[in-house]
């Protein structure tokens, strides 16, 4: 008995309506970023493992448990990318993109891979639409990027169901000082917490604030607070950003426990959360990462960006029944009445395509009866059907039917072109 081979767990097929919505969302994002003059960048799906070990940091769930890593035939240690920012910064440095343009505004889209426990909206192959502004530490670029996310939500019709949370996690130096204080506090706690945090979070204890563990949450309520360990300069910077957001009437919430999981972040971080979900509700997240280029190549390049989880955004759109995408309709369907007229059907379809390149023309090659084919044409909302049989070829005329008004007529090739123009243009 043959084995039924299925897709790998956590990696999904995109078919029909699901694929159509997926493409629709990506096109919306692309169009908006192009209007803001952000340029596309494409980086490899596979990168050197060291790229992520250096950028994300060792002793994290992503590095220790989730990355798809392997040795290739040449013995190189490679990884399927778990996120897009590291590869983007690597590319900017490698190709010296900042030499001519001191600020690079970039967007990218593609699959990412993490070996996680699969659940709705959390898959092992997932897709992100990422946006990065590289080369400036201005809070106004932070404003622009948040405005871009709002534009995307507005066009997709989901803005009322998303909540913007922001926070400042301080400068890199301030974070290191706070981490030491937090480690000292956690070392004094009872064995369960001590063992758990030492195993998973010793190098980056801030990530404990993202934990859903009730015991850890209880302990952290007594922990020193990050915002009370930030300098006056950092707090003024964050206050300035908040004031700018208010001027643009952007509704936001300060979440003092929002830290972001990746170790390269500093200062402003933000998340857009789906209000209709209790868990795994972050649709879009990002922040400032001035440290990343430095730890990769020793160059100080201030940067700010975000990534949208496409699968989670699609879940939101479907839940709200905001899927306004239109099924790809057939403009003209050509039905040949016998096998001897197939070549003529293909020939006339090519002539029409050349004359009207924007029209969608479908030749029905099925062996079904003409009546059944026509019934499906109505179901598929075809606008015009062109019948070609021996009689049409002999008399050099075509039988056409307008499925909207059900009017059927015979016409020459010139008359056919006029009828098509009248119906579609």
How are the elements arranged and paired?
Layout: H1 16-35, E1 39-40, E2 46-48, H2 49-56, H3 61-66, E3 68-71, E4 77-80, H4 85-94, E5 104-113, E6 125-134, H5 139-156, E7 162-168, H6 172-187, H7 191-200, H8 214-220, H9 232-247, E8 253-254, E9 266-274, E10 282-288, H10 292-297, E11 303-309, H11 310-319, E12 332-336, H12 342-355, E13 361-364, H13 370-379, E14 384-388, H14 390-395, E15 398-402, E16 407-411, H15 413-424
Parallel strand pairs: 1-5, 7-8, 12-13, 12-14
Antiparallel strand pairs: 2-4, 3-4, 5-6, 6-11, 7-9, 9-10, 10-11, 14-15, 15-16
Helix pairs in contact: 1-5, 5-9
In short:
The protein has 425 residues and is of the alpha+beta class.
Task: Outline the structure in words.
The protein has 425 residues and is α+β, with helices and mostly antiparallel strands. It folds into two domains: 16-171 and 231-319, BirA Bifunctional Protein, domain 2, CATH 3.30.930; 332-424, Anticodon-binding domain (Rossmann fold), CATH 3.40.50. It has helices at residues 16-35, 49-56, 61-66, 85-94, 139-156, 172-187, 191-200, 214-220, 232-247, 292-297, 310-319, 342-355, 370-379, 390-395, 413-424; strands spanning 39-40, 46-48, 68-71, 77-80, 104-113, 125-134, 162-168, 253-254, 266-274, 282-288, 303-309, 332-336, 361-364, 384-388, 398-402, 407-411. The strands form three sheets. Strands 1-5-6-11-10-9-7-8 form an eight-stranded mixed β-sheet, with helices on both faces. The protein has a five-stranded mixed β-sheet with strand order 13-12-14-15-16, sandwiched between helices. A hairpin with a 4-residue loop joins strand 15 and strand 16. The longest helix has 20 residues, at 16-35. The radius of gyration is 28 Å and the shape is elongated.
